[in-house]
Structures are given as structure tokens and as C-alpha cells.
Input
Amino acid sequence: MLRASSALLALSLAAFYLASRLLGLPLPTPYGLAWGGRAAWDPLGGFLALWELLVFWAFLRR
Output
């Protein structure tokens, strides 16, 4: 159970990073949700997203 939830968390963190960089995410405003712009790519964030994908793969293998 712990292994599966850890793998799911790692995958969701990597997916959230990639979604914010490729698509942009909705932002709350006083008038409701507004679609935000895409965020800039940064090397550290890309490295951490890659690390999360590797963690997900490692949890699946074992």
C-alpha cells in the first residue's frame, strides 16, 4: 500500500510540473477560474521532474 501510494505521488508531482510548463493551469480570481499562462522552464525543476519519474519507475520495478 505504501509503495503504491509513493509511486502515485511521484507520478502526480511529475505530471503537475509538466502540465504547468506545457499547458498552464487555471488560477483562482474573484470572478472564477482564469486560465493562466505557461510557466517558464527551469533546469532545477526539470531535473526534479525527471527524478520523480525515476522514482516512479523504481517503485514499479520492485
